[in-house]
Amino acid sequence: MHDLHQVISDYGAAWQEMDPDKRKEQLTRCFSENGRYVDPTADVSGIAQLSEHIGEILKTSNGRVDITSTPVSHHDVVHFTWRMVAPDGSIMVAGHDFIRLDDQGKIAHLAGFFGDPAPLT
Q1: What b-and-e string marks burial along 77-93, b requiring 16 or more CB atoms within 10 Å of the CB?
Q2: What is the C-alpha to C-alpha distance for residues 75 and 84, in angstroms, rounded to an integer?
Q3: What's the pLDDT score for residue 62?
Q4: Is domain 4-114 in CATH 3.90.950.10, yes or no?
């Protein structure tokens, strides 16, 4: 099984990599070949589609994504936070990711959420 912190580190590095070949290498280390990624704007499956999605986001935003918390986990579920940073250092969006790991310790399913949930009124 992969080290959880290394899996999240490799995943985070993929969100900063403009070179598609290097990005795919990083994702191969942390993302299941048939893994699924969903967020409010995307629903992609597999390393190739996720790499393309990341590349498009990086290109159109001209920013990068930083992991901003230590991952917390129980069983096969992991939660961590992140933020997308513009070239000037401002925060474009921040959010939470929840992942389920496969039996090899790779990301099998990732559900990303933008922002924090609204408080109850």
Answers
A1: ebebbbebbeeeeeeee
A2: 28
A3: 94
A4: no
Chain Cα centroid distance, residue 19: 17
pTM beyond 0.90: yes
pLDDT at 2 (0 to 100) = 62
Can you read off the two tokens belonging to residue 85? 């940073």
Beta-sheet strands, E only, within the chain: 31-39, 42-45, 64-67, 72-74, 77-85, 91-101, 107-114
Q: What residues have CB less than 8 Å from 5, skipping those under 6 apart?
A: 70, 71
For the chain, the domains span 4-114
Averaged over successive runs of 10 residues, the pLDDT of the chain (121 residues) comes to 86 96 97 97 98 97 95 94 96 97 96 96 87
